[in-house]
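Appendix B. Chain record.
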Amino acid sequence: MATRVFERLTRRLLENELIRRVVRNSAYLFSATGISAGLGMVQGILSARLLGVYGFGVLGAVTQFVTVINILASFRMNELVIKYVGKFSEEGNTQKAAAVFKAASLVEIFTSFIAYGLVWLLAALGAQLFAKDTTTTYWFQIYGLVILANLMAESSTGFLQIFDRFRRIAVIQVLQSLVTLGLISAAFVYYTLLGNPGDPTLAVILAYMAGKIIGALGLTGMALVFATRQWGWAWWATPLSTLRNEARELISFGLNTNLSATINLVNKNAEVLWVSLFRSPLEAGYYKLALALANVVQMPVAPLPQATYPELAREVSHSNWDNVRYILRQGSWIAGSYSLLTTAVLVIAGPWLIRWIYGAEFTPAYPALVILLLGFLIANTFYWNRTLLLALGQPQYPTRVNLLAAVLKIGLAILLLPRYGYLGSAALLSGYYLLSISLNVRKSHQLLKRQPVLANPG
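Structure tokens predicted for this chain:
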């Protein structure tokens, strides 16, 4: 009986070609995400046991510091490429499509050099504020080389997505994780099993860095190959003046996505740094583990925005509003059902899992995990809340929402984090998801209400 019910539900979910395409592309990314998450969990376990809570917190400070600065200079070129390369390709205007990809790549290359310069200049301050140890300055500078490897990674990812090269992206993600795990395993054997003296932190940092570099260069190389196949060898010579009439729109879109990404530094991309700043790397270690475990809930849902955005942009451009609504409804049903089940499992089994896998010293991470899961459940269910607004030509609205949330979060962080530490940070992150997603969904609902309801989607 249960099997027949499941089969009926599955057929109903997949009866629409759009949903099948979204699920297929998500499946490629989920397969990679699932494998990468499994490998990443093993990496995290080995790193945590190798470094201890305090060292694990320092590792989080180093990696997140570099990530934050990279995002600060980023214009989220993958989103711009998806929207405009996809738009011009649908219109058959290959010259403008190639020009957009070229422009996005050039901007990303320029900002990457700026970002690495900032890492080099601010590394000593980062070591003092977040690692609480100025001798770790060179760790920040070394890991910052990841930024230079990511010269065109965002633009390349967007290009591969718009032309349905999700399987290739998945392969690169898995390769990246395998390299990182292999190097961390070697460090674990060297320092722990063989008992060699020394601080293993640099070895772990280099392992993470090597995986990131291979992933970024793999995406860039593959995108360049497919761009040449798509547009010919001369695509790189396409004059940017081709985009003269669209320049203002492209710049506005890029600035809004950059501003949104910058605001997210406060809202959700610098969590470990906030805890390190107001408390200590010890609490940052607890919080880093809580975030890692909570990400298990996001693991299969994380690919959905990437897979859904090109489809939403395509359907909106053709005014296929029934299909848009269908994608949102079915997507939320799938993501919400999985998230609720996984959340329940982690809440029940969380303390045992932490003690058994990571060690008893990490058990204080559990209360933060429970708090985070509440926010992640909301974020997963309405995973499309931002990408839909981008597809609807409203990039400024989620930016304003994020700005409002950032102002509130900064004020509350200054008040709460010195007293409540990582638990206060977990509560603020869940609160951010509740506020921002509620406002974005409400705006999306208002915009879609103005559009006609026609026949059944498909």
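Further analysis of this model is presented in Appendix C.
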